[in-house]
């Protein structure tokens, strides 16, 4: 079979033929990678070949060079760079030639292949003339070559670090603007150029700083919004959205001269895709101004000027934007799928963001619309009125909204029984918003009975309504409930709500996630129910356990992938309810704990390939350990093998992380009784720390776990001290030498530092309990030196600060006779204690500091 025939077979409607062809390609790729790429290139450039085969060759070539996963992408890059220079040159020449092919689908895949090669080579200083060749192509009269080259530049800009292209930003921008210009006769070329401009906006920052160049860019994009071709208009509005996101500070002049009018007109466009992008412009603008508000508040908190200024475009534009948005709310598509994004949904989202951005100023625009249409016989206007009201509940001051909500509540409760599904659904959603954001508006003696009755009745309605009724009920119980209280306003309704939720979850149907929502509501009720609901919560636990047992029995009958996924989701729902039931029942769960653990072990045996189910099962076990404490020891031998396997499951790192947490739960719950398992725990944990295959996010928790083990077994931890100290001090060095250049790194460093300090807290306290604190003394200088570095880092979190203060107190308490007196007199420690004492009255950091100060004072005197 020829290479072309193999590629053609990958497109066969016959699954067996497709699979055989795919395996043949994979074998060719493994056996001789350079020849595989050459063969693909030969098929791509073959003008006599079938277009779909040529396209398949281009896609296979691109897939051999790039991947979404970063590690695999780097692996593919290294593989390509190891290919002989001559072979690489042949391939590059071939893919460039293919850009001029007449067939659009072939040129598009060729563009992707060219971009994939450039993305690998340019960062390594190779194929330096690639961009120049593409720019020359754009200046030719060959429309296909021009379009394909513009597409290639767009793909390159999208996939490569902007810094690498900065030196070529001027010629790229010139070519792209030329292609996007209103004088360009081909709308296909304009579309490709505008798309390339969109992808290049990040690295033309220097050009945006130049007023003249900025004006040219903005004029080109604004003119493109008036193109006769809708696809060009959509791409132009997408550009405006991105420009507002990247260059808000430069937009004042353009908002006044063009953008306000263009986008309001665009929102009214009959073409939905254009209207959606115009609405998105205002949503993005609101996002930017909300971020600026946060920056302003933070600056005021620290007594300084904010770095950037808000021009309050949203506030000054309400008069033009609001009438259009309110009208767009009435453009619902009654046949649309609930998850299908449309103009009315986009308008509601934008309205919600506007409310958060401008606050009270939005109320005067929305309330007249609501009053005019809330009783409108046309359901479109009725639903729009309710949606408008619900959308502004987050933003304006509570004292402005309270009287309006109190007045509207009876009407909203009544509308949950409307004849039209869309109106009922939005009414239930709005009630959920009220219960979430403005619970104080609900007069319990006046509104609660009718509200709960309407929501429970809604549980028997359409699946869309069920989800929002569940959400409203969750918000009510979260706002009013507490496990420590004797009773709460929902107590009289509690059993009835649970019964209704159990009834609607008897079906195997999970339309619109209604069944999932119902189980989430049960879990929330179980976690917030006061003492007088505990008997009902206990009965709920038994009933849910019955259902979980049934799913295990029925698991053998499940065949299809979709059915397996649905079963796993149901089991996770049931496990979540049981977890919250266990937490609320506490020690009382011992009545059913034998049965629970039997079920969990069966489930872990049968659902080994479903990580989500295993994660939820482990969370339930954690709740059982916390509830039963030492009594859990009778289950540990049976459960331990599953725990060990999960700890070594690097691919499912979240499951591994939960497993690490379970070790902490076991140690806290069992104390010294956990000692027989600690050798195995420490062996696995240390191996995990050394592994490059395990996500780094799991490792701070492992360090913290050392502290849990030390606290549990006290002086017996001495046998693990040498290796623990080596690992912890290595982690200190890593933390001290890592530059925090981005939010992800800052978060990770804070987690790592907290893990280090929590480990030492546990070790110090554990050893001190058996009069072995002297074993830590050798680490004091290095540890306190690291702590001083952390103290001087302004990116440290409050949690790290609190843990560090607690550790200082523990060290001082462990060495009260002056052993570390000189270290404790350091200026930074006094500054840290002073900082901790300024915490809010009654806060945990203030309590930690008060105790630590006394210990330090005693140990340094």
Protein model, in words:
It is globular, with a radius of gyration of 32 Å. α14 (211-224) runs antiparallel to α15 and α20 packs antiparallel against α21 (379-391). The chain is mostly helical and 861 residues long. One of its GO terms (biological process) is protein import into nucleus. It is found in: Cytoplasm; Nucleus envelope.
Descriptive key words:
861 residues, mainly alpha, 74% helix, repeat
- Using only C-alpha atoms, the radius of gyration works out to 32 Å
Shape: globular
Major sheet characteristics: none
Count of helical stretches: 42
Structural class designation? mainly alpha
Helix-residue proportion: over 70%
First-last Cα distance: 88 Å
Average of the residue pLDDT scores:
92
Q: Catalogue the unreliable spans.
A: none
* Approximate strand percentage: under 5%
Number of extended strands = 0
